[in-house]
Write a structure and sequence with these properties.
A seven-stranded mixed sheet has the order 1-9-8-5-4-2-3, sandwiched between helices. It has a three-stranded antiparallel sheet with strand order 12-13-14. It has a two-stranded antiparallel sheet with strand order 6-7. It is of the alpha/beta class. The longest helix has 18 residues. It is built from twelve helices and 14 strands. α1 runs antiparallel to α8, α3 packs across α4 and α9 packs parallel to α12. The protein is globular, with a radius of gyration of 22 Å. Bound molecules: pyridoxal-5'-phosphate. Pyridoxal-5'-phosphate (PLP) binds next to α3 and α4. Pyridoxal-5'-phosphate binds next to α3 and α4.
Length: about 375
Amino acid sequence: MIPYSTQDIKLLDQIRVFRALRNPLLTQGPEVDKFEKSVADYVGAGYAVAVNSATSALHLACLALDLGPGDLMWTSPISFVASANCGLYCGAEVDFVDIDPDTFNMSPKQLKIKLVAAEKVGRLPKVLVVVHLAGEPCEMKEIAALARKYSIKIIEDASHALGSKYLGISVGDCSFSEITVFSFHAVKNITTGEGGMAVTNDSRLSSKLKALRAHGITRDANQFLTPQNQRTPWHYEQQVLGYNYRLTDFQAVLGKSQLQTLKTRNARRQQILKLYRKELSSSSLVKFQSLKPNNLSATHLAIILVPADLRDAIAHGLAQKGYATNLHYFPIHLQPFYQSIKFRIFPNAEAFSKKALSIPCHTKLKRRQVKEISKTVLNYLR
Ligand SMILES: *Cc1c(COP(=O)(O)O)cnc(C)c1O
């Protein structure tokens, strides 16, 4: 079965990890620092904090922005559940803003309507988690302007968007947000097995994130609260309640090695999407995500919208030819867990999830396979 996405680990990546396994430090050490610096430089952020998953990065980002009980966090219903769960981890309430039917991302128009209504009842969110679905950046200028107006902090869930550009600006440079989060899960554009990173331009947020990822412990003598004459030679201090969310050094080596080829990896994904668009252009029943010409999408996914009554048959037909598909995503608010919370309906998200199909898109996919997948899809639409 050809998967909808898969990792691509080269011999050079393997050799570097093999070497790193002989280093004196196995868990977080100097290689994590180097990986952080390379990602920060790549996306143009001031600070980067590597953790063991994007889920952990989202959790810490919410904590660093002081999200807590009594607060509200809003995100997109069309995302992985982690984009919403992070708010609940902090004891906050979570709600959603419907998507735009063309971009599949959070709709700035819906956001504005919801903010006006929320202000009237005094229930404005503290944090907004925006998700760049499939790598296509959200309309950040509009969203950031609204966030400024209502004093809301923004976290960008850029799990799909490493290498994406918004109006020529790298996603992760944090011009429009407090913190941006990337994922290095196996199916993402580069991988560390499991892994994630939070980037920011705010040194205070960076320090908070760093303390929270390692139990809330500091070893920096300048920050110690205990008087010097009461410290042992092995002194360290836990000053807040943190977690063990560290990345290992050998994972960081893999991430840094993969980052060196990110550009060609993403270019390959972009070629595949372009070919799908060409091959499927003969059917007016197939719709793609609308991409802004001044943006660059990391093209993490190739999502097509097909008629709802044909979607599952198309998926079945592709599976018979050996091609796996997926749904990105089933709306979060309709998950059984979220059913215990009362939400409004989000019609665009719900319509999207009945028509969406992620067809294979990864660096190991051949042109021939893209054409065969397209032909199979078209067969169902005649
Ligand atoms: C993959 C993903 C996450 C979670 O990433 P992990 O590194 O697996 O924790 C969060 N949000 C989105 C949009 C994702 O695709």
